[in-house]
């Protein structure tokens, strides 16, 4: 009762007992988790709206809410519609007899990977005394000990303690986290070597100092949960610390426009990429994040030709702190297709080496990571999975800013519930566990390096997929041999 | 010497330390059994202080220069030579509650339920980890070793 920020549990003095107001409960399970005697159970409330196949309770409630308010329905986190999860229809290969499998506990297994532009060829020169030197200048790279990074989540959308948890976990494991578009709180400056800074359409907190504060810069064009639309942080949430990092006055609305108003073409994108490269003295990779939409392959190819060192593709199941429900649920394409067609297109154009591909949007476990990499990714971004490791129970009400778990809130009473020491430990544990599993599966396939898995679609087989889907994914149906 | 470190920035004011302290003082230890079957429950020796979003759990600080020890006329309040913690000898205590008056943190309580003695945190000397530390879901109370 004391802990619920939504006031769902309350004490009635006269009756001397605790009651629950069901309509206020968002199903975040915090009270359940904190109760020491397991006396609370959060259950599905079977209310009496007919579960018709076409007019589902979800649609009815949506219409009722909108009839009352006349507004856009808001929601949070990733798409929860039962669209095909192609990851679930792809199976992996393993070695039997003809090619030996590898035991990752006894033999070396390389899952380190590098994000950034690779050279077409390497030239070496030999000195008179016989020492060999690399003649080619290597473009700046991000070194990932695990091919999983924490995706962009801004200070504002999540609490400082949540970002600190991810930052410390990234440092422990040797990977990267992303500041999101909300600028850089001074507490994060020490994480330079594990930080990617983002430049989005609002350009909040962007300065030459900011661009140089991380290891890479990422230009955000779109987000999987809400392709084509911007963001709006209401003025009430722009508190003193948020205003300081975003560099806007306290209490003003923080509006991220839908497009970057200086980018209306690939040529414009190229200008911004090179402006950032100039500002960072060509020492840092510059990436471009786009949402997976119908035309994703040509757009990604354009971005690579514009000079992007890595491309992030965010699929339809990507999460968000707040988005119109209608956009989140209906705009974009599944990430599996997006990564497959982008990888294919870049290979056909002969520019695959010029940029790494990072995949985001609904990666749930290490098998999804492996499938994404085999479809052509270099690494993946996780957001929802990372937040779940911090306590999130996917109640999908981040936009209310009252997160009981202290993640998607700025209320000091709630943010202190997330101890970044515990958070960092848990997030790092998640990455370590996935790393073990990835090694295990790679070993089973007889592959000893993650780089040999990238784009290796022979290790994938589709189950229950149509011919055209298999063709787009570039994989064979289950049962077909090499 | 072991001490309990209070980390106010992570305390959510859930008061689980208080009920775990009560349970730690009772033999069964199990929360449900304690609250359901133990007739006379002891007072918690940890108190959660609250003001708006500032919350923290406070128990005996085992001061280097303890006022309660000076105020005690019978010598019931003493420093445990082994652990360095301040403890009450229930045999000697006469219940004058001068220690309650003297404590600058207000963490010694009158024990009105049994006899007349004062009740205070003994760092769970007979238990492994103190109940409040074990029961804290957010590591806002941690057990640390400090040098003498």
TrEMBL record, chain A:
One GO BP annotation of this record: glutamate biosynthetic process
EC annotation from Swiss-Prot or TrEMBL: 1.4.1.13
Pfam families found in the cross-reference section: Fer4 (PF00037), Glu_synthase (PF01645)
GO molecular function, one term: metal ion binding
Cofactor: FMN
Span of domain 4Fe-4S ferredoxin-type: 16-45
Recorded superkingdom: Bacteria
Protein name: Archaeal-type glutamate synthase [NADPH]
Originating species: Thermotoga petrophila
Lineage: Bacteria, Thermotogati, Thermotogota, Thermotogae, Thermotogales
